[in-house]
Design a protein that fits this description.
Length: 105
């Protein structure tokens, strides 16, 4: 039963990501992939802080802030569609790789 509750919880959370991607691609006709990049960056920051011994609340808040910052970087660039989608995804994946390497050995 706990497996069902856990999978429903994660599915509900990820459905918000799918809704954001749907809105940007279909409704707004704006190919912005910030949703994938900002969630990845926020999760990476939170995981890194948890590994380094920070409290879960502080790690969650820092991950939320990092995801918000990644989303805010596309706001000034939103005039040119291609730049808005390409500026967030490579830097977030690169920063996640750097954070993983900086962790404890």
């Amino acid at each position: 039963m706990s497996l069902l509750i856990g999978s429903m919880t994660i599915g509900t959370i990820l459905s918000l990501l799918a809704l954001g991607v749907f809105l940007s691609f279909r409704i707004f006709a704006f190919p912005d992939i910030t949703a994938e990049g900002s969630i990845t960056l926020g999760a990476c920051v939170a995981a890194t802080l948890l590994v380094h011994g920070y409290s879960p609340l502080m790690a969650t808040l820092a991950g939320f802030g990092a995801g918000m910052a990644a989303g805010a970087t596309t706001l000034p660039v939103a005039i040119i569609n291609f730049l808005a989608s390409s500026t967030t995804s490579p830097p977030t994946s690169t920063s996640c790789e750097l954070m993983k390497r900086a962790g404890p050995s």
